[in-house]
Amino acid sequence: MLPELKIAQLRHFVWVAELKGFHAAAEKAHRTQPAISLSIKDLENKLGEGLFEKRNAKTAKTELTPFGNYFFPKAKELIAHHDRIAEDMTLLAEHKTGHLRLASVPSIASRVLPDLLLRFIRGTPDLHVSFFDDNSNAILKMVENQQVDFGIAHLFHEQDHTDKTFIPIWEDRIGVVCPNDHPLANSDALHWKALRQHRLISNGTSRLLEDSEASPLLGHSQFYVSNMISLIAMLEAGFGITTLPWYAFPKESTTLKFIPLQTPTVIRRIGIVQLNNKSLPPPAKALVDFILANSKG
Prior knowledge:
Blueprint: H1 7-19, H2 22-29, H3 33-47, H4 66-93, E1 97-104, H5 106-111, H6 113-120, E2 126-133, H7 136-144, E3 150-153, E4 164-179, E5 190-191, E6 201-202, E7 223-224, H8 228-236, E8 242-245, E9 256-263, E10 267-275, H9 282-294
Parallel strand pairs: 1-2, 1-3, 5-9, 6-7
Antiparallel strand pairs: 3-10, 4-8, 4-9, 4-10
């Protein structure tokens, strides 16, 4: 049976060898000299060979045996390997290293997460982050396939996702987005039927209307645009109007207007989605906790 080598005993051995004495090693270890002697003796018993020559009364120095000389660099290697692993695991537990993978709907990815992530990664230069943005359906698939540690999305039909945990954080209201010079632009709120007489562009968030009385609009769209940049460009060019959640509306736009949809009132809930019965890696758990502590819906 192979001997089980204790890191503390290896450290004691290396210190005695480097400092040329048990007394000096005991001071460095904050132990008594007899305790260091017992530690070395136990290590020698495990290895089956002596590590230090019998002490010469004429000199205070402690010398290594040939076996001790051979073992010395290997002991240092074992200690260094142990310390590297211990440091890596400590940094991982403190979310200062590792690889963090998350996905978010574009609205939260662009308007909320940049500030949160910037504050979160301060002081963690060795933490690698892979960040994906896509629609809620795509994000749920990424969570299911374990391509990401967790997602930030809207969970359609929560009762159909018993394999997932959903923690709602943000809420926003669905509205109509149109150019400033559009006939609807002067409205304070809109009924869904008022949209029928205008060219409607559907998008990835249009599915939010499917369980409301405005669901007929889903079959009324002449265009479907999945990319938000392209959608905004088409709206600004006067192709038509669309429905969007408030967070998805480009707040810096000076050419478009957001008008709340009053009938029906549709609220989108966005939150953290992760698989049940699967623990998050330490960096992901730390980020989830940070988001929950620093976010307002």
